[in-house]
Structure formats: C-alpha cells, structure tokens
Amino acid sequence: MNQTEPARVKSRWLGLGVLCTGMFMIVTDGTVVNVALPTIQVELGFTQANLAWVINAFLIPFAGLLLLAGRLGDLIGRQRLFLTGLVTFTLASLLCGLAGTQELLIAGRFGQGVAGAMCAGVILGKIVTLFDDPGELGKAFGIFAFVLTSAGAAGLVLGGVLTQLIAWNWIFFINVPVGIATIVLAIRVLDDDRGPGLGRGTDFLGAVLVTSGLMLAVYTLVEIPNVGWGSSSTLGFGAAALALLVGFVVRQAMAANPLMPLRLFRSRNLSGGNILQAVYVSASLGMFFITSLYLQLVLEYTPLQIGMTFLPMTAITAVITLGFAPKLNARYGERRMLIIGLIPIVIGLALLARVPVDGTFLTHLLPSMVLIGGGGLVVPAMTALAMADAPPSDAGLAGALFNTMQQVGGAIGVAVLAAVSTAHTARLATEGTPQVEALTGGYRLGFLVAMGFILLCLAIAVLVLRKTARPVPTDDAAEPAAA
C-alpha cells in the first residue's frame, strides 16, 4: 500500500463526518423548532395562523432550491457550495437566536432554508465522489442514513431540553459553534472539486421553472391543513405549481444543456428510488406528526417526554444502519434488504392504529417503536439504489433530487395524515363521541393511511426496482469465498 493511502482513507472518513455533521444540523433544525413553538408564540406574540411560518419559512426555500443547488454544485464545485451554505446557515441561526420580533425570526428561518438547500443539495453527490470502493460507499450510505433517520428524533429531544432548561433561543444558538467548527474542518478535509463552471450554458429558464414550481407546490401542501383540499387557493396554487413543473420537464427535453437531463430517468432504480423516497417519507414524517399529536393531546406528554418516546426507535435504527445494513446490503443486495426492512414498519404502524385513549408507553408505544426502528435497513438500501446509476458528473443532481423527494414527501405526508385524521375526528365528534376518544380515532385512521403508504413502498420495491448491476463486496462478505 502506498504510504499516502492511509492518510487518504482517513481524510475520506473525516470528510464524511463533516458532511454528515452539516446534514445533521439541517435535519435537526427542521424538528427542533416544533417543541419550542408554544414558547415562541407567547414571547414574540405570534397568532396561531402566523406561527406556522416559523416552520414554513424554512421548509419552502429548502425544498424548492435543493434541485438547483445540486446542479450548481456539479457545475461550480460541491465543496464551494457546501461551505457557502454552512457559513450562511450559521449566520442565519445567529439571527434567529437574536430575533426579538416575528419578522426577524421568519427572515432568519428563510435564510436557514436557503442555506440548508445549498448544503444538503451537494452532500450525497460529494459522498459518491469521496468513496470509489463499493464496500466503503455502502458503509458511508449507512452512516448517512443513520443521520437522516436519527436527526429528526434528536431534534425533538434537543428542542425539549433547551426550551425547558434554558430558553428557546438556544435551539438556534447551538448551531453557531457547531457550524464554525464544521466550516473549519470542511476547509481542511474536503477537496476543492471545481466543476466545468457556469460558462458552458446554464439552463436559467429551467432553474426558474423548477424552483418556483417546487416552492409553490410545497407552499400549497403546507397550507392544506389550514384551508382544506378543495379550497380555491389549494386548487389554484396546485394547478399553477403543476403547470410550472410540466413546463420544466418540457424545457429539459428541449434545452441544449438542461438543468436536469431526462436521460437520468431511464434508470428504473433512480426513478423508482426517488418515487419510493417520496412515499416512504410521507409515511415516516406523517407518523412522527400524528404520534406527537397523540402523545401531546391524548396522553398529555411534555415536550421532553415526546422526544424521549422516539429514542428506542432511534437507537435501534442506529444499530441497524451502522452495524448491519452495509454488510447485509453487500451480501444479499439492496433491493432484498429494502423489502425485508419495510415489513416490520408495516407491523409497527398496524399496532399504532390500535392505540387506546389510555395508552401506556410500555404496552402500546414501545413495541411499535421497536418494530419501526427495525426498518433501519430501508434508507441505506434506498439511497444506494437511487444513486447507483448516476454518473459522477451528475452525482450532485441525483443526490439533490433524492433529498427533494424527501422534502416533498414529508409535506405530502403531513398534509394527508393531518387532513384524514382531522376529518375523521370531526365526524366522530358530530356523532357524539367524547373529544379525547374522537381525537384518538382520528389518529388511528392516520396510522392506517401511513401503513398504506408503506405497503405502496413494498409494491414499488417489488415491481419497479431492480438488483444493482454491481456486487458490493466487503472484507467480511469475501471471507467465505476466500475460504
């Protein structure tokens, strides 16, 4: 082995650590605010309607700009865009922490969303280019998957601790030292992988169409719980978003240098993996949302207790994604492991659909959390399948598309499950059912819908996805053959 090889290997894993830290900050920030919302509402005087913009001001630019950020990373350099996003995210977090008015907080959250898209849009593409060995890449995907699946629950716990023990501002202040340290490390360990540049003919019209279409689509989805599915604003904005996105696809078919080459979608794994990502996240984030409401409004848990409820699921997911998923994917294939990983999630959601009004953690919640955590095989396999056929020159775009589907799927899941559970609760209440029982009945139906999403994921995995063409050997997997 070349003497420089150990240093290069170490640098690759340090680089992965930097990228995952950035992703952890961004994903955590999406949920850490949730438990602090009541305190923020009181201290800054938000109305109930305006309070939603503390969330939406982050989500809309984040989801809308991911695809553009991924392509810009391919063209101007992923390290450069990642660093720019980190600096901006750190400054925007400081602004949020210092905000004494509603306007400043919303402006800071918007800045976090823009910066988060710049970072998240290039992370998967950077990981693919860091690891050229399939075994190492599988392990890297496992670590990345753990970050994605654990950060949301970590945000709930962290938000509860900081809000109750210190002050709500610290859910943002904590990003500042972490962000500074990550910036310093990123400069030292990430290669300056400059792309061909913008001069080769960037599809600016396509960028405008897809960014505005995605932002409008996410805005429409997040407003559905407030205005309803059949309202004029939902139908009008939804139609406009669809028209913009259709226009984007038409533009990509005609442009000399498209923002998103349609040839990428010839891969069944890339296309199916992204659809699967949207459906899977619809179920998982919708489940988080409905479970949190059940814990808060029916069982009367505190914010910290709500966060702690999800810890068993997070711990089991960590063990599977970090300890078992890479080796199992290498030995048996990502598609097979994906299918196996979806099955315990179906069972866990079926159990949640039976929660009673007087449910207890040990009897009615822990079994479901354990089973859903047992689905930790899903995200590493799904990520590997969606990225396997993307050429290096389009790795940033493919990664950004995958993350975009996560955000759009999350918005769809929360909108659908909130609408379904609210409508069923209202129907039960009009029939004379006591309020707490009506709420529980609505949440049960929401869990059933989430289970339906996972069953759809199983159908996509079986009917659409294909085995990866390349074997993904690891040292452990190779030992039996060597023997």
From TrEMBL:
GO molecular function term, any single one: transmembrane transporter activity
Record has Transmembrane helix as a keyword: yes
Nucleotidyltransferase listed as a keyword: no
Record localization: Cell membrane
Residue span(s) of domain Major facilitator superfamily (MFS) profile: 15-469
UniProt cross-references to InterPro entries, sorted A to Z: EmrB-like, MFS, MFS_dom, MFS_trans_sf
Main location: membrane
Membrane topology: Multi-pass membrane protein
Transmembrane segments: 12-37, 49-69, 81-100, 106-128, 140-162, 168-190, 202-222, 234-254, 275-298, 304-325, 337-357, 369-388, 400-423, 443-465
Alphabetic keyword roster: Cell membrane, Membrane, Transmembrane, Transmembrane helix, Transport
GO cellular component: plasma membrane
Annotated protein name in UniProt: Drug resistance transporter, EmrB/QacA subfamily
Source organism of the structure: Actinoalloteichus hymeniacidonis
